[in-house]
Amino acid sequence: MPDQTEQPTDSANNADWAQAGRPPRIAIVGAGMSGIAACVKLEKAGYSDVTLFEKADRVGGTWRENTYPGLSCDIPSRWYCFSFALKAQWSHRYSYGPEIQAYMESVAQTFGVTQKTRFNTAVTDLQYLNGQWQLTTERNEVMTFDIIISATGILHKPAYPAIDGLDTFAGHSFHSARWDHSVDIRDKRVGVIGTGSTACQIVGAITPQVKKMLVFQRTPQWMMALPQIEYSKRWNAMMERFPSLQKLSYHYYMQLMATTFAAGTVGNKTVQRLIHWACRKHLRESVADDALRERLTPNYQAACKRLIFCSDFYPAISSDNAALITERIENIESTGVRTTDGTLHELDVLVLATGFDPGAFILPTRVRGENGVDLETRWAGAPRAHRAVALPDFPNFWMLEGPTGPVGNISLITITEYQVDYVISMLNKMKAEGLSAIKVKSTACENYNASMRQGIKNTIWFTGGCDSWYFDASGLPNLYPFKPTRYLKDMRHPDYSEYELIR
Ligand code: N01
To answer: Does the residue 35 lie in any domain?
Structure first.
């Protein structure tokens, strides 16, 4: 990788790449799933002057960061993959973390993404100056780019619980996304705080190995059984032989999820009732003990929080070496967790499966747009964007998986790919018309978000009677409130009247 360190320049003269007929210099922040998709698709579209900046030493994003036992993806792998890199040889319908990480690394290697990535290089500052973006790294290197693509993911900043005495615990304590593999959990007394998707996978995986498993539940969660299967060699050989079957599976799962879970969350009452019924049935059939079942039963609608797919949690929590603690946590002491009933739950290991800061997106990187408008100030705890990709006052700055995009029980890889195609349409427009910048109009962004605010009130995330990480400081869930298929359709054909096209 050539050294691209530069001093800030007065770049007014060379800012107009489209008019000058040179390729745009593109920086992608993050080499996770979105960054990989962006790099590959840009290259295919003829934009090859691309540099990725990755804070870690490998690609993979969330699949690199999370290494906890039981880590898997509850979206079928035949869909949770790049459309341009379908894979025949998945071991299971729902792949485990290491297999997905290996896939990410292999795609990055095959398509030349690794070679374009500057590893161990966190971007600390982005500023729009004289028609270009000035990018500063943690080592104070300063470079200029024409286009910035933020591909930092959504849930990358671990949320640590504000519990008194957390740092006084004398055993081993770590966040689920910072799993300490040097700690041998076998025959230990392990506590897990949280009952989200992560906690359920951890508890399901390690309970048979530990001496005692204590799960500290603040809110019960609905979960559906995970219809996991291991693919046979013969089945995968057939997939290998007939690549059209891989495509068929990709679209089959996409349609299935769109017409079932996605439809249920955004207002289809029949599907909602079916999801709720399936969750109740799963609980009833998995937990024989009436009292335990009662304590595991949520008092809100299924899919109000992000629906969990897990078949291991109920058997694990029902086993003799496990206990569900529903009393509130009072504080943490050197030997364990004390609950409000006065009990001290003694532990050797404490796992904080307490989720992530959902409002981070590209933050804590400082991002300043036109006239020094600061992104963190602009968002103020309630991040909003236009179609999840654009921000007024931030020209030539694009986000993948930005705020108000479709997330939940769907493949974010598909969403990202459509967003990348949208950005490529913008670049093509700039090139064809010799534009120096494209930025979304404030009115378009406001109108879009007004429709989001209206739509969100019909979704299960708002009406279901729960609290979740989907809610932000505005008091509303920060999600796309319509069917994901509508989003994909809209993204296929950018409406340029929503943008200022600057010559
Ligand atoms: O985090 P969460 P996660 N005291 O925020 C509890 C994706 N994902 O890491 O419900 C006590 O869902 C909190 O309690 P409550 C997926 O999008 C995908 O599990 O707020 N408890 C909750 O139980 C998912 O939604 C896969 O009352 C405290 C838990 O901690 C997202 O990641 C797999 C507490 C946090 O749950 C996040 O999931 C895993 C406190 N002070 C994750 N603070 C796939 O398979 C928090 N909690 C694709």
So the answer is: yes
**Residue 404 in tokens:** 């108000």
Per-residue pLDDT, 218:
98
Q: What residue owns the CA closest to ligand 1's atom 15?
A: 219
Residue nearest to atom 9 of ligand 1 (CA): 355
Domain, as residue range, for 424: 22-59+113-157+357-502
CA distance 53 to 444: 30
Q: Is the shortest distance between the CB of 161 and ligand 1 below 6 Å?
A: yes
| Beta bridge partner(s), residue 142 | 6, 136
What b/e readout covers 347-375, taking b as 16+ CB neighbours within 10 angstroms? bbbbbbbbbbbbbbbbeebebbbeeeeeb
Q: Where are the alpha helices (DSSP H) in 333-411?
A: 375-379
| Overall pTM surpassing 0.85 (yes/no) | yes
Q: For a pocket test of ligand 1, which of 79, 99, 354 has the largest count of ligand atoms closer than 8 A to its C-beta?
A: 354
Mind listing the pLDDT tens digit for each residue in 360-403? 899 999 999 999 999 999 999 899 999 999 999 999 999 999 99
Same domain, 365 and 340: no
State whether 272 and 131 are in the same domain.
Answer: no
Does ligand 1 come within 6 angstroms of the Cβ of 481?
no
CB 343 within 8 A of CB 333: no
The residue from 352, 381, 404 where one domain ends is 352
Nearest to 310 by CA among 99, 73, 117, 135: 73
Non-local CB neighbours of 496 within 8 Å, separated by 6+ positions? 429
- DSSP secondary structure of 98-114: HHHHHHHHHHHHHTTTG
Alpha carbons 71 and 66: distance in angstroms, whole number: 7
User: What is the 201 CA–ligand 1 centroid distance (Å)?
Assistant: 11
CA distance 197 to 74: 9
With a 6 Å cutoff on the Cβ, whether 353 touches ligand 1 is yes
409 close to ligand 1 (CB < 6 Angstrom): no
Distance CA 274, CA 271 (A): 5
CB 204 within 8 A of CB 316: yes
Which class for 62: exposed (0-12), middle (13-18), buried (19 or more C-beta within 10 A)?
buried
